[in-house]
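Re: Re: ligand-bound prediction request (bumping)

Still looking for help on this. To restate: I need the protein modeled with heme C bound, output as structure tokens. Inputs repeated here so nobody has to scroll up.
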Amino acid sequence: MLLASACAGSPPEVPLGSDGTADPVLQVGRGIYDSSCKSCHGAKGDGGAGPRLNSGELDEDFPELIDLAEFISSGRRRMPSFGSRLSEEQITAVARYVREVL
Ligand code: HEC
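Reply:
Sorry for the wait, this slipped through. Here it is.
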């Protein structure tokens, strides 16, 4: 049973900060990743229909958080654009989650 639930594919939990609580923005980002991104990029960012997001290459492709947020907002080829579906705050939250947690 434990294994089955581990395989069900929840995105990784937001680690607790030094004050013992998880950053609420990252938790919002995790929720968005779960509902809008994992179908293509995998629960842990391992990739699928979309490329891997957890290889460490993201920081090279998008050195600044704003570059990543703009990419998510506008999309590219088969990557859908989220600018009309998510608020700027939501896009920043999911961009931070992808960079800092995956
Ligand atoms: C319908 C499938 C799909 C969904 C849903 C999706 N993506 Fe993508 N994503 C892709 C594809 C395909 C690419 C490759 C785009 C290309 O051809 O350049 C991509 C590329 C990316 C990249 C660039 C990776 C790199 O190293 O260049 C990032 C970052 C990304 N997606 C984040 C997200 C986030 C965050 C979400 C949710 C808000 C999301 N994606 C939802 C399919 C998807």
